Amino acid sequence: MWQEIAEALSVERAEKLVSEEFDKGIPEDHPIHASVPPEVLEEDDERRILILAAFEILIEADTEVRKEIVYRLSEIFTNAKVKHVIDSPSETGAPHGFTVMYKIFPYDDQFGPRELNDVIEQVRMAAHQAILFLRYTFNLGVDMNQMTAGTVENGPQTPVRDLDPEGITDKSID
Q: Taking the complete model, does pTM exceed 0.85, yes or no?
């Protein structure tokens, strides 16, 4: 989740969201450490500010909004019959990401390439639905004209940020 929000933020908006206390360093108990490798935070100051701002948005979200996000994600994954984990390393219970999985048993007599493909597609589509839900929730925009899952030849393509269902083209989150 935080990755999508960080991509959608402008640096100017991110700087307004990030407290000056983070200039001295990120506290050890900050939930960012549970989700982001240290080397990513050290690579680029601009990227670090965008990531911190994304976490601040998630942490500051209203409790009822957080509950609704977790409920809707759980509903998406349960309907798809996949296993899932919604990451929430902060004390406030703010969700920061999710993992979708499905256990397979390749040594079962019934298992074959078709079953593998079905399971992969089930996991991929559940994750895709969750990402679309989050993009709408945080007003990050969704490009309905392009394939967001990619093709065999081209690989995955991220949705264009400046297109959203209501025609809002501001790339920042207000």
A: no
